[in-house]
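Researcher: Checking consistency across runs. Here is BMP family ABC transporter substrate-binding protein again:
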Amino acid sequence: MLSDAGLGDQSFSDAGFKGLEEARDELNISFDYREIKDAKTYEKRLEELVNQGNDVVIGLGFSMQEAIETVAKKFPDQTFLLIDSESELPNVHSVTFKEEEGSYLIGVIAGMKTKSHVVGFVGGVDVPLIRKFEKGFTEGVKKVNPKAKVISTFAGSFDDDKKGMQIAKYMIKQKADYIYPAAGFTGVGVLNEAQKSGIYTFGVDSDQFYLAEKAVVTSMLKRVDVAVYNIAKELVKTGKLSEKKTQLGIKEEGIDTAPIRVITLTSAETDKLNEFRRHISEGTIQIQP
C-alpha cells in the first residue's frame, strides 16, 4: 500500500512500485495495491488487502507503521512488510536503508565542487528518517570543505513541488549553488528551480537526471525496487520471509549513487569519492544518524 505522495512522485513510491512490476513480469506473481493520501483510511485499505488473501501485505513508507501495527494485531497469522521503518510485532517484517551513507557521498561531491561555499538541503517532513539524509549530507560536505555553509530547510510535505521551488529560490538567494532535496515530489520542484536558475542539484531515491538534465549532477539511489523484488523472489522460492529486520546500505548494494553527469570531477576528486565509498562499505567511516 502506498501513502503520502503515492504514484507519480518520481522518487520513493515509484521505485517501490517498479520493484513490484518487475516481480510480476519476471517471477509471475500477481499483486494489488491501494494508493491512499488520507491517513484515516489506511487501516481499512490494509484490511482489504489482507482479506484478498495476499501472502504479504506491504506498507511503503514510515507513515504506514501505526496503521500496519494496528491491523497486524487483528490478523496475527498474516505476514506484513514495512518499508522504511521497524516494528517489533512478530508478524511485521521490516526493511530499512542507510540513507546517510549515500547522502554522505552526495555531500562530498557538493563540498568539493561548490564555488560559493554555500550548499542547501531540503527535507520533506521533519522526521528522524529525513534527518538521516540531512546528517549524512552535512557530514560529507564538512569532511571535504570545512568552510562550507549548509542551509537546511524542511518543507513539511512530500507532495508540494511549488513549495520545493520556493525553498530553492530562497536558498539560491543565499548563494547556494548545490542543493540536495530529500522530499519526494516536493523535491521535484527543487530540481526544476535549480535548472531554471542555472545551479546544480541532486536526485534522490531513484535516478532523477531526466527531470532536470542540465542541473542534476547525480542521484542518491535508495534501491527500494531491489528490496521489493528480492522480497517477492524469496516468497516465490521459500514461501516465507526469513529475516525479521533487514537494513541495506552501500555494502549490501541497497544504497548507491547514479552516474555523475553535467559536471566533471577531476581524477583526484574521483579518487577521493571512491575512497570515501570504500571506507563506508568497510565500516571505517560510520555516520551516526
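Researcher: Does this match what you'd expect to see?
Model: One thing to look at in this run: The chain has a mean pLDDT of 92.
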